Structures are given as C-alpha cells and as structure tokens.
Amino acid sequence: MSRFAQYAELGGPEVIHVAEGEVPVPDPGWVLVEVRAHGVNPFDTKVRSGARAAAPEAPRGVGHDGAGVITAIGDGVTDWAVADEVIFGWTQGAAATHALVRPMHLTRKLPEVSWETGAALPIPVGTAYQALKSLGVTDGDRILIHAGSGSVGQAAIQFARLWGAEVVATGSPRSFDRIRELGATPVGYGDGLLERLRDSASAGFTVILDLAGTDEALDSIALVDPARFASAAAGLKADARGITAYGGGSAVPLTGEQRAQRAEAVAVVQPLIAAGEFSVEIGLVIPLDEIVDAHRASESNRVRGKIIIIP
C-alpha cells in the first residue's frame, strides 16, 4: 500500500489528512520513487491555504520536494534505473511513501548526502542559486539578503560567500549566531531598518535579494541600483512596486535559463556538501502522520531550519 498526505479544500493545516491507496504505476515518461524524506517549503503552505494560485483538482497531494529510491520505470525512460537514489523537486504529492516524478525533475543523490539533506535542497537551493545568478553576484559584490536565516536565505548567503561577495543579512536576534556562522553580518528587523543597514555597510550595497516580502524589505531598494534589486518572495507586489521578482506569485514567469538554473543547483551543491563547504540546517524531523503539525510549525516560523517529513 501507499500512504500520502492530501486535502480536498483550501484552508489551514487541519484540512490535510493522510490517506491510503494502491502503489501507483508510472505512465510512459514517468518514474516511481519510494520516498525516504520530504522537505516542507513555505510554498507548500501557501498553495494549501489558497494564498498562492494552484490547479483546482481535488483531492490535491501535498508537497513538492523529496528524496528516495526509484522502484519502477515507465516506458520511454532511458536515463534512470530501478534502485537509483535520487533527489526530486517541483513534483506534486511529495509528502507520501511513493511519488510519481518526471525524469526532468530528478537529480542523482550523492552517497555523502543524507536523505533528509537531499529532501531539503530543491526549492530552497534552486531559488537561491538562480536568484544570485540572475543578479550577477560575483567577487567584490556587497550583497544584502533579507530573511537570511530561512532555508533560501541560508543557501543564498553561502553561495554569495563562495563566489567572493561580502554579505549582510537581516533576521531576528535568535538567528544572528547562524547568520554569523555562515559568514554574513546580521542586522535585525524592525523600525529604523534602513538606518541600521546604512550603518552596517559604510560602502553601501551593490546587490539586494529580498526573501522576506515585507514592505520594509522592499523599501531597501532605495539603497541600491534598482536593476540589481530582486525579490523571490514579493511577486504579488512586484508590478505595483516596480521591482524584479523571481516567482513569489509574480505574473512574470521565470525564463527558460532561470528554470534551468534552479534545476542544476541540486547537482552543483551536493559536492560542496560532501566537501563540508556548504551546510543545510535541519530544524525538525517528524513522521508523515504528524504533517499537520509540520505545516503549523512552518507557518508560525517557530522552527529555524528545514522541516523534514519521514513517510
């Protein structure tokens, strides 16, 4: 049997329930993955609540990122085999014991990368990598990253530092130690943010990446050339504010190059993890039956680090 999280109506975490059914069989062009770990993303909770537009089918599977082992191959799939260990993203229904995945969304998992870490990578690491690539971050840049302690923010800090940039990151005081550990200078949220940011970087900033989506974060566009300011969290406000947005509900889709960058990020980061040059903070690991609690924790921001579901 297969077990999977789903919901039939939009709403709070309580609309999710875990159901059982037959193990799915992959159609031509698909593979079946036995899921070993699923990574919860804020995007998942926004789709479930209705804050982010999504296909109206019901019931709807929960989650998009995971890691596991291929157990069946559909006709026409030639680059993958049963028993391959993989990481997958952008796949509806990842919170399950089994997930049907398009080969284009698979990345081979390195042995040095755990199931939990693998499941934590696709959306956060892909978003950070693509955003910094699109902004042209390189050696000598001074970058401000809003929401630096989140999963995307932590990845963005590490990529920026690896590429030679100086980094300042906003966050709450409880996240300052982690932000410093990753090589960035922390600055607290709240009233007077712009003044504190000016004080933290006397030479100013050359790039700003917003991952918070708040008005105070967007106001920091005043500190940089607008051409090098982008948000991956405030897409719904992008047109009104005249900012560049990468997803986050933006009406402007990612380009083909940007989608390719998000996909390649998982392969790029794994050797860095294996070499100890990149770290993923896991905040909570809980069983599939407690997925409602996982979504509540994600929405409340009471857990720092990635929330992982074990089916």
The biggest sheet amounts to:
7 strands, mixed
Number of helices: 10
Q: Could you say which structural class the secondary elements and strand pairing correspond to? A: alpha/beta
Ends distance = 12 Å
SS elements, strand count: 16
Q: What general form does the structure show?
A: globular
Query: Topology as H/E string?
Result: EEEHEEEEEHHEHEHEHEHEHEHEHE
- Calculate the mean pLDDT score and round it: 95
User: Which percent bin holds the helix content?
Assistant: 25-40%
Radius of gyration: 19 Å
Tell me the β content.
25-35%
Could you walk me through the main structural features you see in this protein, from its secondary elements to its overall organization?
By secondary structure, the chain is an alpha/beta fold. Helix 3 (about 120-135) packs across helix 4 (about 150-160) and helix 3 (about 120-135) crosses helix 9. The longest helix is centred in the last third of the chain and has 19 residues, at about 255-275. Helix content is about 30%, strand content about 25%. Strands 3, 5, 6, 7, 8, 15 and 16 form a seven-stranded mixed β-sheet that branches. A six-stranded parallel β-sheet has the order 11-10-9-12-13-14, sandwiched between helices.
What are the salient characteristics of this protein?
single chain, 311 residues, alpha/beta, seven-stranded mixed β-sheet, six-stranded parallel β-sheet, 10 helices
Quick structural summary:
The chain has 311 residues and is α/β, with parallel strands linked by helices. It has helices spanning 42-49, 115-119, 122-134, 151-162, 176-181, 193-200, 215-219, 238-241, 256-274, 291-300; strands spanning 2-7, 17-21, 31-40, 60-61, 65-73, 85-88, 98-101, 106-108, 142-146, 166-171, 185-188, 207-210, 229-231, 244-245, 282-287, 306-310.
